[in-house]
Amino acid sequence: MGIRSDLETVGMELWSDARVSIRPLKTESDLIYAAYECQLDDGQKELVNPAWFSIGRAYLCREDNYPCIICDGQMTPIGFINLCKWLGEGDAYTWSYFIDRSHQGKGYGRSAAEAAVRILKAANPDKPIKLATEKGNDKAQRLYRSLGFRLLPERDGDDIVFGL
After folding, report:
1. How many other CB atoms are found less than 10 A from the CB of residue 98?
2. CB 136 within 8 A of CB 129
3. Residue of 54, 130, 117, 52 whose CA lies nearest to 90
4. Cα–Cα distance between 83 and 131 in angstroms, integer?
5. Cβ contacts of residue 122 below 8 Å, gap of 6+?
6. Mind spelling out the 3-state secondary structure of the chain?
7. pLDDT tens digit string along 110-144?
């Protein structure tokens, strides 16, 4: 059983809170939003995988990837997240995500990360969550630490790894 099967057992009430909702990418409109309309600042493009990369992984390894749209409280798309199987050392969950540049700085990134933790822990409370980030991505590192993640001794290529 993979992450997709695990996530499909999680009640939909855990996928939303007052600030954000995470919903599976299912329509052509979702695909267009994630791959083309949702944009990062130029400096951020080197720090995260583009949505099309995660969507391609989901096409090739469906059971290990669950691409989703992040929406605000009015269900307006504001970002992209791929909940997925950790490909590095050990059996764990992870995610790759970003908030559209026009919605950044409003707390949506934190809310989406909190929702991802809530969803993944409901899917399997015993499975660790690991996140990789560039050594120079101080903003992501501060966020992960504030959510209870700790720096692990392992590396994911050149990236540092945090675990919860």
Report:
1. 23
2. no
3. 130
4. 11
5. 10, 11, 14
6. CCHHHHHCCCCHHHHECCCEEEEECCCHHHHHHHHHHCCCCHHHCCCCCCHHHHHHHHHHCHHHEEEEEEEECCCCEEEEEEEEECCCCCCCEEEEEEECHHHCCCCHHHHHHHHHHHHHHHHCCCCCEEEEECCCCHHHHHHHHHCCCEEEEEEECCEEEEEC
7. 999 999 999 999 999 999 999 999 998 899 999 99
Whole-model pTM?
Answer: 0.93
| CA neighbours closer than 13 Å in the CB half-sphere of residue 147 | 24
pLDDT value of residue 79 = 96
**Paired tokens of 105:** 């700085």
